[in-house]
Amino acid sequence: MxxxxxxxxxxxxxxxxxxxxxxxxxxKLGKVKTSKQGNQWAAYGMALAIGATMLLxxxxxxxxxxDGEWTYQSHALxxxxxxxxxxxxxWMAVKVPMTSMxxxxxxxNGLGGAASMFVALAEVPRAAERSHTLAFEGADFAIAxxxxxxxxxxxxxxxxxxxxxxxGKLNKSRIGPLGSQGVNAMLGLACIGLAVWGGFFAxxxxxxxxSNGLLAFxxxxxxxxxxxxxxxxxxxxxxxxxxxxxxxAGMTTGFILKNNLLIVAGSLVGASGIILTQIMCKAMNRSxxxxxxxxxxxxxxxxxxxxxxxxxxxxxxxxELAAVLDAATSVIFVPGYGLAVAQAQHKVRELAxxxxxxxxxxxxxxxxxxxxMPGHMNILLAEADVPYEQLYELDRINDDFKNTDVVVVLxxxxxxxxxxxxxxxxxxxxxPVLTVWDARTVVVVKRSLASGYAGIRNELFxxxxxxxxxxxxxxxxxxxxxxxxxx
Length: 487
Description:
It is a single chain. The chain is α/β, with parallel strands linked by helices. It has two domains: 293 residues, no CATH class; 169 residues, TPP-binding domain (Rossmann fold, 3-Layer(aba) Sandwich), CATH 3.40.50.1220. The chain contains 18 helices and eight strands. The chain has a six-stranded parallel beta sheet. It has a two-stranded antiparallel ribbon with strand order 1-2. Strand 4, helix 15 and strand 5 form a beta-alpha-beta unit. The chain starts with 6 loop residues before the first helix and ends with a helix.
């Protein structure tokens, strides 16, 4: 019995335990109350997986195809890489603000794709040493290597483009010919041809190197071309899709390395990303193809800085808003990206507390695509200890607006734009939105009258029951809290 308990068996058992922790972690991420614990469980699973891999490396070493034996030369490199990666990850997690989390997620998706691509490319010299074709270990191996290079490279550059758009560093839908459907189609066909050539028909080591090098290059360009046309308003969907890509790339890497943990973890990420993408598309009432090709909201930071020609806007102040809220018996807050930028989540929680002490019913309306990534608003409000019971999704809250005294919109724009329901020619026509205009009074807190991520004007701003509080969300809430306390 003891003879069966060698390092390999211990590692496989550890991988199974890590996979279970990943699955349980995802299950717990489904609820706000257990999401923090779910994140911790997944982190424990990753720590266990890394530890088991290091154990396997220490006890077995590395296979040297030239000498046909195991060596132990890269142990220090592996330990150093693990320590450096852990330090960088910790530093970034601590330093990156919550408002930059969408860019952070996009960047990490890219790193996952890069890792899969480089692992797959590392198989090229091994194939060159043996038989000059990736199919030397079977067709499944050749397909896995080609897919890992293709999907990994697309994920890398696609995620970097998404990062640049989210960070406001890129507002183009084309870079030269890149981004057009015709060029994307040609690049896709080239990738397929190169993958088939390198996987099954390369006759020399030189051909193998050329085919896989060109495959990586064309795939990197394809990632840029596929992501460039996606508009700013659709970027939450793009992030979910790229997350799925990174998981699929990791899964194919698992087949290359014959690593069950990578197969399981990659499958989990790939499947969950696809499901999330579908949910996001449904929330926007758009097909995935429409998102990928539609280009809604070309500018990453919003539609512009002009006031869009509004003529009937009624302004308000902290003093007036405090008086309106003091007389209200029901208030709904609608958080948006402006809330995140201003870091005003704690202030809205403080204002809500004051209203609750006066006997007012307080709720929060959460749109599925509010912010810059799925769940962005939930994360911010949870950070401020907003009770989960007060968070209402669109389907649960829309019918209640007509019975609500005051709705306070905090930096949201497109998710509460009437054009989605009354303008069939609008880019967001048919998109489910929060019908905040049904309330008795709507107060929109926004720094300016500029359009949102979709790049279109919002008639809500000049409706008869709407008031505009043109200010930074945090400053506006602070002024309102001060005035409300004085009443």
